[in-house]
Amino acid sequence: MKHQSFGVVGEILVLIVLFFMVSCKSGNTTKEGNNFFLEGDGAGKPVFAFVEHDLGKLKRGEEAGARFRFKNEGAAPLFIEKVKTGCGCTVAKYTRKPVMPGDAGFVEVIFNSAGKSGIQFQQVSVYFGGLEKPILLSLVAQVTD
């Protein structure tokens, strides 16, 4: 099977077009006060009161977590497509049904400190349908023996 080449000029043009397609999309992350949200036309808009929680000191093997609540301040229903955790020591539960405009949902993140020591920083990526970038939620803990 032959591979068709565009040549150097063609490849550069393709890269330029891709760059403008990516950079011209709406969906910028904005911070107002302590509220974080993604902007987009006709989309749901998740607004979190906080995106980081300090669990304090934990003894090795303890579990602790936080519930991150958000409100849909957009004009359309909002739903969570997926939540990705950083490692197997972190588990997430979240609102599975669409969150209507004006309603609230949650992402609950549980950290298991087994096998950990010292300061731990765990991050979770929340992907909302129709929005380009994930919201990052964080847990911080100091694990002691």
TrEMBL record:
<keyword id="KW-0812">Transmembrane</keyword>
<keyword id="KW-1133">Transmembrane helix</keyword>
<keyword id="KW-0472">Membrane</keyword>
<feature type="transmembrane region" description="Helical">
    <location>
        <begin position="6"/>
        <end position="24"/>
    </location>
</feature>
<dbReference type="InterPro" id="IPR013783">
    <property type="entry name" value="Ig-like_fold"/>
</dbReference>
<protein>
    <recommendedName>
        <fullName>DUF1573 domain-containing protein</fullName>
    </recommendedName>
</protein>
<dbReference type="Pfam" id="PF07610">
    <property type="entry name" value="DUF1573"/>
</dbReference>
<dbReference type="InterPro" id="IPR011467">
    <property type="entry name" value="DUF1573"/>
</dbReference>
